[in-house]
């Protein structure tokens, strides 16, 4: 029962998917992060289904690209985009570590957050407009890979501060078990994307790995560790990089 409650905690925190109301306690928080990639699986399935329907029905490229860009936002409620925007403001401030961490906690959005979000959506729509039907299954797997990397970082990286969402999940999680679970997700879905299409799959894995290395460097050098906002920033960048890598590889075939 507590595993179902852990799943409900993860889904209700990181998505808009209706879940039964459960109490956050020490027992169900231990494994909540293990179910984080489930949200990616839901998004991936919906993207494949909707994308296939639109492409087969002859929908225009712009309509298709806009719908596919907005679908993950509708499922998650934009919680990771909030982290992306806060991080854009913090990184663009060029302040010291304490100033950047203070900006992450600020609920107001600055100019760089708005500019960053606009560029993000513009690039996402542009890349989605180049997607073909055969690319959709590999792209769908990317939503699980991004969350597996993000969950792995939460239970592996040092926390940047002693409070916040990332610290809450770190303190409540059975770290070793969650870390192993995230590695299993990564192993299984890495194999799956390579099996689906080894060229597109390899491109998606290289893109995700490069963004993860950048993310680890960013956390360590500029913030002294990970926060929930930084994890959300990574997730959004990873998804966009995977999508871009798949499209570029597809065009080279």
Give a short overview.
This protein is mainly alpha-helical. Helices cover 78% and strands 0% of the residues.
SSE blueprint and pairings:
Elements: H1 2-14, H2 26-29, H3 36-56, H4 61-76, H5 79-93, H6 97-105, H7 111-128, H8 136-156, H9 165-172, H10 175-196, H11 198-223, H12 228-252
Helix pairs in contact: 3-4, 3-8, 4-7, 5-6, 5-7, 5-12, 7-12, 8-10, 8-11, 8-12, 10-11, 11-12
Description:
This protein has 253 residues and is mainly α. The protein contains 12 helices and no strands. The chain has helices at residues 2-14, 26-29, 36-56, 61-76, 79-93, 97-105, 111-128, 136-156, 165-172, 175-196, 198-223, 228-252. α4 packs across α7 (111-128), α8 (136-156) packs parallel to α11 and α10 (175-196) runs antiparallel to α11 (198-223). The radius of gyration is 18 Å and the shape is globular. The termini are far apart. The mean pLDDT is 89.
How many runs of DSSP E, i.e. beta strands? Answer: 0
Biggest sheet statistics: none
Mean pLDDT: 89
Order of helices and strands: HHHHHHHHHHHH
Helix content: over 70%
Beta-strand fraction estimate: under 5%
Structural class: mainly alpha
List segments where confidence is low: pLDDT < 50 over at least 5 consecutive residues.
none
C-alpha termini separation: 48 Å
Q: Multimeric state of these chains?
A: single chain
**SS element count, helices:** 12
The 3D shape can be described as globular
Radius of gyration: 18 Å
Notable characteristics:
253 residues, mainly alpha, 12 helices, 0% strand
């Amino acid at each position: 029962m507590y595993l179902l409650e852990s799943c409900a905690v993860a889904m209700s925190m990181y998505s808009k998917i209706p879940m039964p109301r459960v109490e956050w306690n020490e027992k169900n928080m231990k494994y909540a992060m293990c179910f984080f990639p489930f949200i990616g699986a839901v998004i991936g399935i919906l993207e494949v289904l909707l994308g296939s329907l639109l492409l087969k029905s002859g929908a225009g490229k712009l309509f298709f690209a806009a719908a596919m860009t907005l679908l993950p936002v509708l499922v998650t409620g934009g919680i990771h985009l909030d982290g992306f925007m806060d991080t854009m403001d913090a990184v663009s401030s060029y302040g010291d570590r304490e100033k950047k961490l203070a900006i992450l906690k600020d609920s107001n959005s600055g100019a760089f957050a708005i500019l960053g979000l606009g560029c993000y959506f513009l690039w996402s729509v542009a890349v989605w407009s180049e997607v073909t039907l055969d690319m959709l299954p590999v792209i769908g797997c990317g939503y699980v890979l991004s969350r597996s990397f993000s969950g792995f970082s939460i239970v592996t990286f040092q926390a940047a501060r002693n409070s916040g969402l990332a610290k809450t999940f770190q303190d409540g999680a059975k770290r070793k078990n969650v870390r192993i679970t995230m590695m299993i997700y990564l192993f299984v879905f890495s194999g799956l994307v390579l099996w689906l299409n080894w060229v597109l799959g390899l491109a998606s894995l290289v893109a995700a790995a490069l963004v993860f290395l950048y993310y680890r460097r960013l956390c360590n050098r500029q913030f002294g560790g990970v926060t929930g906002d930084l994890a959300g920033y990574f997730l959004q960048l990873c998804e966009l990089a995977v999508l871009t890598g798949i499209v570029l590889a597809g065009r080279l075939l």
